[in-house]
Structures are given as C-alpha cells and as structure tokens.
Design a protein that fits this description.
Layout (H helix, E strand, L loop, with lengths): L2 E11 L10 E16 L3 E4 L3 E3 L7 H14 L5 E7 L9 H16 L6 H16 L5 H8 L2 E5 L2 E4 L9 E6 L6 H15 L1 H22 L3 H17 L5 H12 L4 E5 L6 E6 L1 H13 L3 E5 L8
Parallel strand pairs: 3-5
Antiparallel strand pairs: 1-2, 2-5, 2-6, 3-4, 6-7, 8-10, 8-11, 9-10
Helix pairs in contact: 1-2, 1-3, 2-3, 2-4, 3-4, 5-6, 6-7
The chain binds (R)-mevalonate.
Length: about 300
Amino acid sequence: MPCSIAPGKVILFGEHFVVEGYPAIGLAVGLYASTCVEKGEFKIYSRQLGPIDPSSPLAKPFLRVLEEAAREFNCGRDYTIYIDSGIPVGAGMGSSAAVNVSLTHSLLHACGAGFTREDVSRIAYMGEVEVHGKPSGIDNTLATYGGLVYYKRGSFKRLDTLLPEGVELVVADTGVKRDTGVVVRDVLEKRRRLGRLGGILYEAAGELVEEALAALRERDVVRLGELMTVNHGLLFSMGASAWVNDYLVHRMLGLGAYGAKLSGAGRGGIVIGLAEPARAQAIVEELEREGVKAYRVKPDYEGVR
Ligand code: MEV
C-alpha cells in the first residue's frame, strides 16, 4: 500500500502579509503527517480522530484532492485513506498541508501516475483551499519541497542556504487552537480599515523579509532574531496576536532568545524563538517548568517522500 510522509513547518517571517502577495520565509520542520492509500471503497481513517464521515466538513479537503487527481491524472475516486499525523492541529505548524501533500503523493503513486513535486503541491493546494479559504500556498510548498523557502504568491525559491549552525528553534505551544481562515479574514479587514497606514505596514513587512533573507545568507543570527521580534510587532499591529503570544515572546526574550515571534496564523497557536542550542534547551526546560508545552524543532530538508 503506497504511503508517504510530509513535514510540518514554521513561518520564520512574513505570515499574513504573504496572503496579499508580499514575500515570506518558511522552514519545514521534522514533525510529520503520514498518509497511506489503497484502492477500495472511499473511506477515511485518522489515527488521531478515528473514522471520518465522508459527508462531514472534515472530509472535504480529501474529496477535493481525490477529485483533482481524478481530473488531472485519471486516478479514479475509489480509495481508502489512512492518516497519522504527529503535527499539532490548529497550531500553525502546517498540519493540514502536510496531510494534503502526503495524501496527494501516495494517491498519485497508487494510481501509477507519472508526476512531479509541482503536481503534488498544486493538487494539495486545492485541498488547502477547502480548509482555509484563501491560503497563500506557502504551507503546501514547504510540505512538498522541505527546507527553507522564500515564497511569494505564485512563485517561490527553495533556498540553498541552511538555518545557520549554532542556532536552534524553540517552539512554545499556547495550547489555544483557532481557525486560520477566520484570523486571515480579520487581518485583511484590519488592513482595509487602516487604509494608507495598513499599506505602509505591509510594505514594511515586505522589506523586513528581504532583510531577513540577507541576514540568513550572512548567517547573522543576532540580526535574524531582531527581525523576528520586529515581525511579531507588525503581526501584533495587524491584530494577529493574543496576550498569550505576546507573553511567550517576552518570556523567550527574557530567557535569552535572539528573537521570538508568533508563527502561522497567530491568536494562539505557536510562538517560535531562535537561540543558541544550550540556551534553547534552557528555554524549553524553564517554559516546561512553568507549565508551557515547549520543544526544540529540527529542519527537514527533504520534503514529501
Ligand atoms: C500560513 O501558515 C499562515 C498564513 O500566512 C496563511 C497563509 O499564508 O495561507 C496566516
């Protein structure tokens, strides 16, 4: 039975702004969704959720992926799907994209199609549309290609740069789950309300991503951290933060991170911090002691497989 795994992700710079065509930088991380498919009756089993009713809203992205694969590659629609995901759901770590990408990859294998990664990412994106409404496409791109990606709606560059040695990413989970589509709509509405000022904040976010790209290439971790925290400030201004995100950003900075920010849609979800490895471990231990779920994440440079 064909099975594939695809990684989750963190957005290092530029979430939300990316929805409106500004650039963002994301990193695929070593947490995975795995999907297996076999020819048979259309049924979906999730290890975490149990059987999923094919007529429920949860099944919509899977149906869409099957439909697109049938239309483009003549795959048919009769498959049983088995999903197992180690990526937290509703936390901003790309769990739905990793499922859609791994499903598309194993489905195209199962139907014997000759396909490219581009095909996988494009079909998985249609599943993402069913989940979020207006996704930028960065999540399915990261789950497909892995590594560090500079993304602008409609185009992307897989960076040959790696995350600089001597730093690690810490994830702190607020435990607050939210609907990405709702936060995205609210942020867009706020941009409209702010008018010219909103435009200036978006321009600043775009400029920040270009500077972050230069800092990544120069391996300037102090600058990278500083830019992450500035990025958090911009996301706060656009209404994407919540007190728990702001609290964890302050906490990580206070514990010696180079920088910290919410990552993904925000209003809960996760906060990421950049720190030297020993410092990263100390931050994790202190946050855990304070009752916050925290862990270090490693990059995934391979993408779906
Ligand atoms: C993606 O992880 C987070 C948002 O930028 C939405 C998107 O890009 O589709 C908020």
